[in-house]
Design brief:
There is one protein chain. By secondary structure, the protein is mainly α. It has three helices and no strands. Helix 2 packs antiparallel against helix 3. The radius of gyration is 10 Å and the shape is elongated. It starts with a helix and ends with a helix.
Length: 43
């Protein structure tokens, strides 16, 4: 994720689309890096 702050701010704004975008990006990043913990955090 770009940062926890970005995710938190999007959530507080009620921007569900941005929250999903950030979460999906984290899952993709974690899978590419072979990092299961990041996949779980992204979900």
């Amino acid at each position: 994720m770009s940062s926890k702050g970005d995710l938190r701010a999007a959530f507080r704004r009620g921007d569900g689309a941005e929250v999903m975008h950030l979460a999906e990006a984290e899952v993709k990043r974690a899978r590419a890096a072979g990092e299961p913990t990041g996949e779980v955090k992204g979900l």
